[in-house]
Amino acid sequence: MKRALFATLTCICLLLPPFPAGAADPLPAKPGEPPRVESTDIATVTQGLKEALTVAADRAVRAAAKPDGYAGNKSIRIDVPGELEHLPPYFMDRGYQAQVNAFILSLNRAAEKAAPKAAPLFAAVIRELPIDNAEKIVNGGGMAATDYLRQKASEKLHAAFRPAVVTGMGEAGVLSAYREMMAKYDYESVAAFPVDQWQFDLEGYVTGRALDGLIYLMGEEEKKIRKEPAARTTDLLRKVFGPSE
């Protein structure tokens, strides 16, 4: 009897299909780790990445546009262009610190004035951004999506953002602050720095630094979305990056 029962069970086991590899539920990610997306719904993952970028851009713009959004944040504060880096020590040694400070402040005020106009520019670029490796990016952690945006769209964003920055420079009095600072320059005694030979694009410089600041803040917001459930404020973010608490 026992032999017959054993033989019957053996036959049943042999007839069953093999258990597919990987069919077991995946282990949940450890706290603080980026989600490991295994979904085949690439469209949802892609839209989730774009949602994260859009939300991060909006938060970055609001932070940068505040009073001292640039000037008070040492991580994105705009200093004098490299072509003029020898000027602050020259002026400070001669008691013209106030003029240097006024020029630097004007650069940051220009960026703060321009920042709100970046929101629709980012939104439009993100909406049209092609994402070919969505799962790799969403599983990349950190600021992988922001880095991807920087790589793919920096030039486009720079060109679109420049007019707003130029307007901001006018409103912030950058040119007048520059002229007031340079009025203290002793051209005859400082022949080592002939200003007529300086070649630099101040508008392009401020645009680039203002954009760099926004992208930096975006990256910080993306990190929060990945790590902090409370930062996932939309259904799509919660679906792609995990539920909120």
Sum this structure up briefly:
The chain has 245 residues and is mainly α.
How would you summarize the topology of this molecule?
Elements: H1 2-15, H2 42-64, H3 87-93, H4 97-114, H5 118-128, H6 134-138, H7 144-172, H8 174-182, H9 202-227, H10 235-241
Keywords summarizing the entry:
245 residues, mainly alpha, 10 helices, disordered N terminus
Describe the structure.
This protein has 245 residues and is an all-alpha fold. The chain has one domain. The protein contains ten helices and no strands. Helix 2 packs across helix 9 (202-227). The longest helix has 29 residues, at 144-172.
Shape: elongated
Please give the share of residues in helix. Answer: 55-70%
Reported for the largest beta sheet, the result is: none
Order of helices and strands: HHHHHHHHHH
Can you count the helices?
Answer: 10
Q: How widely separated are the two ends? A: 58 Å
Percent of residues in β-strands: under 5%
Tell me the number of structural domains: 1
How many strands in all?
A: 0
